[in-house]
DUF6350 family protein (Corynebacterium pygosceleis), 531 residues
Amino acid sequence: MRDNLRRRLRAFLPVALIPNAVVVAVVVLVALCALMLTDSGFVPLAATVAQLWLAVNLAPVASDTAVLSQLPMLPALGVVWLVSHRVRVAVRHRISILDLTVLTGCVLLTPVVLALTATAMLLDARPVLPVEVPPLAVVLGRVLLLHLGALVIGMGPKLWRALARRFTVPPSVVDAVAPAVRFLLALAVAGLLLVLVSLVVHWRVLAELLDTFGGGTATAGLVGVSLLYLPDAAVAGAAVLVGSEFHLGGASVSLHDVTVVPLPPLPLLAAVPTSVPGWALVLIVIPPVLAGIVAHGYCRAGTRTWREMGLAGLWAGVFTVIVGALTGGTVGVYGSSGVAVILTAALVAVELAVVGAVVNTVTGILLQRRSVDGDTEPPTDAVDDGEMDDGAGPGVDGEGSDVDGTVTGEGSPGETVDEEDLIAAGESDAPGPDSVDGPADGDADTAAVLAATGDESGHSVPESAADAEERGGDPVETGGTPAPEDPDEAVATGTPADPDEPETQGPERDARDASVETGTDPETGDRDPGQ
């Protein structure tokens, strides 16, 4: 048991260590550059590294006078990409339940250890530097939520479908995630475009704000910070489009009202309007249009049920709550900032579910009319060779087979799946180099089939004489070169029809040669009447 655990740790611990080590290295490099540019010395290096790591992982940072918990999302998205990519590589072949448990523990515990280390570094620096330790529960909660999201993304839809089959979860629960994610991404793009257009419209305000800093390093730093906050701006713009609001301290923005108060001197905030034009309410049709496009793509292959469209809306609402919680927080003396999370999530879920249900109904009617107008009667007397509907037979990744390809349909009882069974997670079902346990017990039957058939294509491989003798049986003739197709050619050349037939020696061969020369039968001695 300990050996298995060690092997799993050797295989999966680097999945979590490598991306976090890259993040720590980048944070240390940025901290060194910042301290050298500001001529601050190296005394605050440890505290700077700790706060930068917390900020990159969306954990709050604090000084002795203020707390900043609304942090830029762009570096955090880089962390998510690094971790999810390593997880995707680790599970691209086949992985057991125990492997997945160890992988999850490594991915989640590694950032927790780093968060505790950063907190300890801040505690050590607090007596000599104006830093404060943020609430530990909030730190751990945000760090765990970020890395758990990276793990979920890295596992991929194929592994999640396999897990759903393993634990008898309806496949529609997993399939409904795809339209929800597409809808949220479309909303984020639309929200970002809204912010950029507003920046262009308010270019005079942006120019005045940049002129107050006189250019140089300060202006470049503010522009860089604004770029890091672009994903946050996209979330805020999407919330405004669906009919919710974004607030920053006492300021708030929606499609029907704007409340203006002094804002931080950040170039990106120049996009906040001072008033709402009357035509702005027209923009509220954008999210339903996007929901209709996404729902049409989801229902294009065939009509869905009301339950599936409701699940898609539910997933969209859940993801909105997670993203809204990570993008919101406190901005120092300005107070809380972010979107109205519950209202935004409810609007997103309802729009996708309702519009999706309408599109699904219309799509079903159109498909039914096409089937009536066209000749849709399929042939019943013959089936083309080599063609089979996906998931229609045993061993196919569909209904009637478990995660290891064992048929579990009626009349063919399936195997009992234990914790060592492998789950097909990647493009190939064969165990890859990252597999810890090697072939599972359930692969013995597959190996036996391959041994019996010779290779995966089904062509038989002849058994050698040595193999037959090892089994205790007689050597098996494997056959030789095929005989010539023309028998006259064989007689004319004197070549036996079967090259493996032993050559005749002695009197029998002399008699046969004589019969060929005289035209007599070698057995009866009668002459051929034709000669």
Notes: The radius of gyration is 36 Å.
